[in-house]
Amino acid sequence: MNSNAHRRRRPSRRTRLPGRLTAHPRILAAVIAIGVACLAIPSLVLASGGDAARARSMPAKSSDEDATAEGKQEPPWDGRTKVLGDGSTSYTGPQPDQLKPTPLKPGEKPPQFVVFSWDGGLQGDDQLFSHYRELSKAYNTHMTYFLTGIYLLPKDKKTLYRPPMHQPGVASISYPTNEHIRATLEQLSKAWEDGNEIGSHFNGHFCGTQGGGDWSVEEWKSEIRQFYSFMEQWKTNTGYTDIPALPFDPKRDITGGRAPCLEGQKNLLTAAKSFGWRYDASSTGDFQIWPTKKNGIWDFPLQMLPYEGGKYQGLSMDFNFLYNQANGETDGDPAKYSEWEQETLKSYLAGFNRVYYGSRAPLIIGNHFENWNGGIYMKAVDEVVKNVCVRKDVRCVSFRELADWMDVQRPEVLEQLRSLDPAQSPDWTTVVK
Description:
This protein has 433 residues and is of the alpha/beta class. The protein has twelve helices and 17 strands. The protein has helices spanning 128-138, 178-193, 217-232, 234-238, 250-253, 265-274, 318-326, 337-356, 372-388, 399-407, 411-418, 428-431; strands spanning 36-37, 56-57, 82-84, 89-91, 98-99, 112-120, 144-147, 197-200, 256-257, 279-280, 284-286, 292-294, 297-299, 302-307, 312-315, 363-368, 394-397. Strands 6, 7, 8, 16 and 17 form a five-stranded parallel sheet that branches. Strands 1-15-14-11 form a four-stranded mixed sheet, covered by helices on one side. Helix 3 packs across helix 6 and helix 8 packs parallel to helix 9. The N and C termini lie far apart (51 Å).
């Protein structure tokens, strides 16, 4: 445990501010897990049935209009693939199969949006990236995959990474194997072609002292530029000639991210705005309230969900459950796995029910490609996808699609939505006028 990593907060019973774990060779996330008293919201019974129909077409123009921001590109489109740079990336036109954002009509109940997001975005030996890509296709959903930039950088080229406040090549996570780089490139291409979003988890996963919370705006800009460079120059850096270009232009299609350990959002937002980013998912602790903007960028925080039968509220991320159930152990007591899995699943479903039958605020879940404690947190998410994404009015979307939808709503309607308690089921004719 890094005792200095989160010195600005003091943990309580359901609060954990973990530093970097050392039990796993890839992603060792540090996530704030905040606990508070129960909101005293009554339990809700799951409804049966539903429909999986999705109205998807081209994204709103608002996602592509800011071509003047730093690093943004607006390649002309003539129907042909345009290979960019050294051949690592390309422009193949607007992303397929996107949610069509439409303003709410007077008296219309909002869709129930659910966003599943993944930090790291590596296709490792566990093949979790491909698993969730296939699960998304099977249930007609989209997810957001936050790629860590150095997962496209070979270890023998690691000094190309110049992290803020650290020596060249230093990172708080392991560099990938060559096989994992190749597999990750394949999954990134397929994920984008399936309509999923690729976002940024930045590069070195630094937390605490000299991590993102200590970085200046210019240091965050450097981190973002390097993230883009690792995507745009993976062919140069790896020497691979037998893998096709990614089917998207990162500077055009990557418009948001999540900071490691959820640290440093204030300066990150200023830096991200200069690149034309539209949202950030690095904050924490909201009680399932309709999102708002910070510094002109949509703020999509992790959320507090009912935990332990509603006695507490826990953060909507796997690491939160890992800490509270197993004291942070990634290989805890196997005899507890079934109990912990059900507890995690019930918490996710209770958070869903609270807003599905209430304010319809988006449910945001953020996890990692990890098989912690026998993979129980992955199994819990699998069940959530299968249970909620088929329900009437539910839209399991990416953050970018959620931003598209939010952008076309009337400001006065969004203001009314934000005034609702999460469990409040209003007369929608008085909210959406």
